[in-house]
Amino acid sequence: MSDVQQRIDQLVKGHKVVLFMKGTAQFPMCGFSGRAIQILKACGATDITTVNVLEDEEIRQGIKDYANWPTIPQLYVNGEFVGGSDIMMEMYQTGELQPMLAA
């Protein structure tokens, strides 16, 4: 496992909810990242760790390889890859996401 993959692995496994996104929760830098934050807030998630991939090119590319998922944002809950903003929206609408994020 490369250094960047280890860093990502530690982030994913060291926090309950991790969102790799463009920008920050306060200032999302793309519509998909903004929507992902809105969905998490609508689910009542409070303990969210966000990683701004625009600040670290290694993580920006490495996260795509880590999950074998080509797009950002990427949500991880309890160390497991959930998906991007479209999957998050579907899971929110069907009620699947809320219990995953419950404390």
UniProtKB/TrEMBL annotation:
Gene3D superfamilies: Glutaredoxin (3.40.30.10)
Top-rank lineage group of the source organism: Bacteria
Organism of this sequence: Ideonella oryzae
A Pfam entry, by short name: Glutaredoxin
NCBIfam families xrefs: Grx4 family monothiol glutaredoxin
Gene it is expressed from: grxD
UniProt KW keywords: 2Fe-2S, Iron, Iron-sulfur, Metal-binding, Redox-active center
InterPro entries: Glutaredoxin, GRX_PICOT-like, Monothiol_GRX, Monothiol_GRX-rel, Thioredoxin-like_sf
Occurrences of domain Glutaredoxin (ranges): 17-82
PROSITE patterns xref list: GLUTAREDOXIN_2 (PS51354)
Record-stated family: Belongs to the glutaredoxin family. Monothiol subfamily.
Official protein name in the record: Glutaredoxin
